[in-house]
Amino acid sequence: MAKLPIVAIVGRPNVGKSTLFNRLVGKRVALVDDRPGVTRDRREGTAVLLGMEFKIVDTAGVEDEDPDTLPGRMRMQTQNAVREADVALFLIDARAGIVPQDEEIARWLRSEDTPVILMANKAEGKAAESGVLEAYSLGFDTPMPFSAEHGDGLVDLFEALRPHIEFEGFDDVVDEPEEDEESGPLKLAIVGRPNAGKSTLVNRILGEERMITGPEAGITRDSIAIDWEWTAPDGQVRPVRLIDTAGLRKKAKVQDKLEKLSAQDAMHAVDFAEVVVLLLDATLGLEAQDLRIADQVLQEGRALIIALNKWDVAENPPSLFQGVRFALEEGLAQVRGVPLLTISAETGRGMDQLIQAAFDVREAWSKRVSTGVLNRWFEKAVEINPPPAPGGRRIKLRYLTQAKTRPPGFILFGTRVDQLPESYKRYLMNGIRKDLGFGAVPIRLTVRAPRNPFDR
């Protein structure tokens, strides 16, 4: 794994450095208070900004003091942090305007070799406009209006950091999966209509009568999680957390309060699952309720597998399989190619194939593609099929980045992207699935445009 680039935050006391640090690391780590001088030591954290990962360093407020004093030693720590950084974020308070201390810090930063991005923090509201204009006098590039408190300006910060981070040997860095994602138990939920055989399937997988089963529909009420270890055909032992859920009927048919609570509990279990197996009764085929459940699972961003149970007693299996496959392609057009397996919870047919498919689809669901690989694919995709020009004005697509995994989420940057048709977004998402190895997992695509300074 390549070393993460380093970004240092610098500025006089109480301009919002720790608030920005907390914003970028995604949690309240650094202490924040209205009093100046709260931060003393350098604090480091891992930041992820719209898919761009880097090490962020919060520093003490720069004050002109004797090196032997505490403020002087704090200043030395800040200077060392800036010299070790790949880029420095110089914060000023836009509402307070430029003060002599800001000018002193600017002179020092101009004497260093570290690139500097000037950020006018606390820029929400009209009171900050004059401070943003004053910042031009500090001798850096265009000051960036920003609000660490509210998160305004994150897209602009992403664009300003890209030349210093993405294009200097870091664009092909791929994040290693977190340990709990790679080796943690597979969270596998079994859902479906009542009496599809969910509890019988769990019992067969476990090899014991762990769940109560019977011909009556709706025996299971609570979502039950069971930890288990699967021995793969190659002998590898892998942990699994199986979650059996209550049957899900059409909402119109659910009148009993307890059944409503059971249905809510089942969907709550889906929220915490990684992979969801939608179990169908092969003797009944695919019904509209099955498609509704599948759509809910995909809307929640979970990886989906569809299993045809009771295959040992199904009539005309080849025709049934093709009919279900065709109906899925039509009914789940947003995610084509969802894995469709045939199993028998009664006889044990297809158990290993089902668990292996669940591990495979979790791997795709957790996949991250480097920015370099992603944008090389993106340039070819746009060249083959350029975006339309509504009203004769061209939509310019600039680049694509993966912001998250589990499920994979991508952000598309460009101008006039708010007019990009849904059909073109689907073209990009289908290409990502097909060409970059994501398969049939749900994908999120968000469009973003840089702030227009002339919007006012």
From TrEMBL:
Molecular function terms from GO: GTP binding
UniProt: GTP 2 binding residues: 192-199, 244-248, 309-312
Binding site for GTP 1: 11-18, 58-62, 121-124
Domain EngA-type G: 5-169, 186-366
Keyword GTP-binding: yes
Keywords assigned: GTP-binding, Nucleotide-binding, Repeat, Ribosome biogenesis
Taxonomic superkingdom: Bacteria
Role description: GTPase that plays an essential role in the late steps of ribosome biogenesis.
Quaternary context: Associates with the 50S ribosomal subunit.
Protein name according to UniProt: GTPase Der
Species of origin: Sphingomonas prati
Gene: der
